[in-house]
Amino acid sequence: MKILEQKIQKDGRILGADVLKVDSFLNHQIDPELMQAIGLEFAALFANEKIDKILTVESSGIAPAVFAGLALHVPVVFARKNKSLTLPENVWTADVYSFTKQTTNHIMIDHRFLSANENVLIIDDFLANGQAAEGLLKIINAAEANVVGVGIVIEKTFQKGRQILDEHGVRVESLARIKSFENGQVIFL
Ligand code: G4P
Ligand code: NA
Ligand code: NA
C-alpha cells in the first residue's frame, strides 16, 4: 500500500536493530485518514470472504481494526490484557509472550463476544514474532469459531511471525512488508 509505505518512510523511526517506531500515526497519535484508507484496503483484500466479526488485541490493533470493521460493516472485538489478579469468569484466554517487551500478557475475550461457527478476521498493527496473532488463533479455536485470515498493517518479514502463521495454514495479508532496515532506511519487499 503505497501511501502507507510513504508515511513509514517519512515519519517512521528505526530503534535499535529491529524496531520501527510509528507513534506519530499508529501507536500513540493516530492519523484517521490513513486509518480509513487502511480499513478500506483490508475490506477490498478480503471482499470475497464471509466475515462476521473482526478480532484484535488492545491497544494498538484497535484503530486499524475499527476502520476495517466500518468498511466491512461488522463488529470489532478487542482482546483485553488481563491486569487483575483474579481471572474473570466466562472468558477465552491465551498467554501472549512479547519478545519485544519480554513480558507475558494474558489476553481474554468474553464468551458473549465470540461464538461457535462465527467467521473471524484478525487485524493487528504489527506482525513481528506472531505471538499476538497466534494467541487469537488459539482463542478462535477454543471458541470453535473459524478464522478467515489475518490482516496486518506493518509486517517485519525478517522476524518469524509470517512463518508461524503459514504453519497454521492461515491467509495473511500485510499492507506494508518490510524486508530490512539498512543504514537507517526502511527497505520494503
Ligand atoms: P508479535 O506482535 O508479532 O507477537 O511480536 P512481539 O511479541 O515481538 O511484539 C510485542 C509487541 O510489540 C506488540 O504490541 C507488537 O505489536 C509490538 N511490536 C513488535 N514489533 C514492533 C515494531 O517494530 N514497532 C512497534 N511500534 N511495535 C512493535 P503489544 O505488546 O500488543 O502492545 P500494544 O502496543 O498493542 O499495546
Ligand atoms: Na499490537
Ligand atoms: Na503494538
Automatic annotation (TrEMBL):
Q: What is its main location?
A: cytoplasm
Which amino acid positions bind xanthine, per UniProt?
A: 20, 27, 156
The EC number on file is: 2.4.2.22
Summarizing the function annotation, the protein's role is: Converts the preformed base xanthine, a product of nucleic acid breakdown, to xanthosine 5'-monophosphate (XMP), so it can be reused for RNA or DNA synthesis.
Give the matching Pfam families: Pribosyltran
Source species of the chain:
Leuconostoc litchii
Q: In which pathway does it act?
A: Purine metabolism; XMP biosynthesis via salvage pathway; XMP from xanthine: step 1/1
Query: Could you tell me the keywords of this UniProt record?
Result: Cytoplasm, Glycosyltransferase, Purine salvage, Transferase
Q: Cellular component per GO?
A: cytoplasm
Q: What is this protein called?
A: Xanthine phosphoribosyltransferase
Record gene name: xpt
Quaternary structure note: Homodimer.
User: Which SUPFAM superfamilies did the record assign?
Assistant: PRTase-like
Q: Which reaction does it catalyse?
A: XMP + diphosphate = xanthine + 5-phospho-alpha-D-ribose 1-diphosphate
Is Glycosyltransferase given among the entry's keywords? yes
- Where's the Phosphoribosyltransferase domain? 47-157
Q: What is the lineage of its organism?
A: Bacteria, Bacillati, Bacillota, Bacilli, Lactobacillales
Which residues does the record give as 5-phospho-alpha-D-ribose 1-diphosphate binding sites?
128-132
